[in-house]
């Protein structure tokens, strides 16, 4: 059987707030592993998609998460919605994006075992809000 087109996705939550899944969908392909319902603060999650048939088809989809932001010992609350998107078609480079307003997100294409992977990192706008001293 021919090798299937696979995309690994890793989301690292470097904020002090949990991510809660609000939706996910595939336009092409099938889930190798469904995105988790929650990505706790200061943790990461990995999941993936693959083509349904062979190299001739690709995979495209998204997952969205809600983040409840609390500041000043909980006296101020805010909310943001993040949508992570990816597409790996037969022709052309892998495409991916993430939209967020109240937190920062970095993304990079990488490689896991010869398969394309996308690494997203979510972190607060301000360093004061993060407990991660490495940022």
How would you concisely characterize the structure shown here?
The protein is built from no helices and ten strands. By secondary structure, it is mainly β.
Describe the secondary-structure layout:
Blueprint: E1 6-13, E2 19-28, E3 30-33, E4 38-39, E5 43-50, E6 59-71, E7 76-88, E8 95-99, E9 103-112, E10 115-124
Structure description:
Residues 129-135 have low confidence and may be disordered. This protein has strands at residues 6-13, 19-28, 30-33, 38-39, 43-50, 59-71, 76-88, 95-99, 103-112, 115-124. It is mostly beta strands. Strands 3-5-1-10-9 form a 5-stranded mixed sheet, with no helix packed on it. It has a 5-stranded antiparallel sheet with strand order 4-2-6-7-8, with no helix packed on it. It is elongated and about 55 Å long. 0% of the residues lie in helices and 61% in strands.
- What overall form do the CA principal axes indicate? elongated
User: Major β-sheet, in short?
Assistant: 5 strands, mixed
Mean of pLDDT: 85
Low-confidence stretches: 129-135
Percentage of residues in helical conformation? under 10%
Q: How many strands?
A: 10
Give the key terms:
135 residues, mainly beta, five-stranded mixed beta sheet, five-stranded antiparallel beta sheet
């Amino acid at each position: 059987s021919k090798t299937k087109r696979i995309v690994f996705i890793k989301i690292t939550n470097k904020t002090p707030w949990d991510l809660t899944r609000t939706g996910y969908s595939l336009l092409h392909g099938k889930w190798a592993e469904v995105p988790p319902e929650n990505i706790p603060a200061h943790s990461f999650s990995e999941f993936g998609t693959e083509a349904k048939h062979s190299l001739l088809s690709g995979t495209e989809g998204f997952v969205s998460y809600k983040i409840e932001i609390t500041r000043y010992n909980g006296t101020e609350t805010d909310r943001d919605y993040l949508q992570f998107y990816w597409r790996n078609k037969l022709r052309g480079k892998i495409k991916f994006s993430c939209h967020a307003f109240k937190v920062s997100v970095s993304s990079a294409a990488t490689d896991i075992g010869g398969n394309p992977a996308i690494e997203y990192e979510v972190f607060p706008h301000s360093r004061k809000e993060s407990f991660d001293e490495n940022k």
